[in-house]
Amino acid sequence: MRSLVTGGAGFIGSNLVHYLLGPAASDLGISIERVVNLDKLTYAGNPQNLATVAGDPRHVFVQGDICDAALLARLYAEHDFDAVMHLAAESHVDRSIESPEQFVMTNFVGTFQMLHAAREHYKKRQAAGREKGFRFLHVSTDEVYGSLTAEDPAFSETTPYAPNSPYSASKAGSDHLVRSYFHTFHLPVITTNCSNNYGPFQFPEKLIPLMISKARKGEALPVYGDGTNVRDWLYVEDHCRALALALVKGRLGEVYNVGGMCEMQNIEVVREIITLVMDRLPETERRTPGDMIRYVTDRPGHDHRYAINCSKIGEELGWAPRESFTTGLKRTVDWYFDNDAWIRGIAEGTYQGQRLGQL
Description:
Layout: E1 2-6, H1 11-21, H2 23-27, E2 34-39, E3 59-63, H3 69-79, E4 83-86, H4 93-98, H5 100-127, E5 135-141, H6 166-185, E6 189-194, E7 196-198, H7 207-217, E8 221-224, E9 230-235, H8 236-249, E10 255-258, E11 263-265, H9 266-280, H10 289-292, E12 293-296, H11 311-317, H12 325-338, H13 340-348
Parallel strand pairs: 1-2, 1-4, 2-3, 4-5, 5-6, 6-10, 7-9, 8-12
Antiparallel strand pairs: 9-11
Helix pairs in contact: 1-8, 3-5, 5-6, 7-9, 9-12
């Protein structure tokens, strides 16, 4: 398989690149000839995430923008992709409230350019009688479904869209574009909608790595509102396995929800993080959750609850999460403690000046 992965220097994307080039993908029957990793290297794209695959001849890194139609055409012509795994996206809700334009450009317009380039490539494969070997996987979010009350059933693949932030609205728009390219142009697409991911390489502005960092430093941990907002938590490696399964075994035109089967209030997550971090600190530096948590003004349009019904991907593709939140969170805290150089590179901003050849 020759695959294009977009956003492959980001959090989920870099974990996916590691997964595709590792033994786990081979266990699924995926044989990787080449992974072309296209990333713009914005603030969340970190070359350090790819340090361990920098010398793998199967991995080709390209710095570029998914909105660049000429670049996409050149990459398709040069590499003759069998598969596209489209993860590139602006994803932080707070940033989408402050600067929504970039979210529309990357998430919506960028996805259009990806679909257009894929369609042109697919037409050429059709003309050569090779159309059966091509698939386009679009990776999206559960936030497109809006917010749930405590009593509502979990999101399913048929839940109506009701996005409440510029981020989720831009992702909802991209999902609709993908659907339209299947029904109008018969492009062989599959869409996945995932719950909140966590694990190694996640940018420190997100909830779990932010709280780990602040707890280690003994700083106050800011929690929105009263902390009762509920999220479903999915360990990133479990997500990568789901994406690989959906790519090779999913039904064309279908949507698969991917969740961790683990609903928790934000305040519960923060307390568990504090406990795990304190266990790793010297006794003289340990503090209690009550001393560290600070409730702050809730953000605008803050969805109350997300929950994923992922029975479809379980029944059709045999997928289920392997990590519980307890085991996954411990692995995550341990990773952040063991990778101070990675954290320091982000804190000092030095990661943004690096390229793969410099690692």
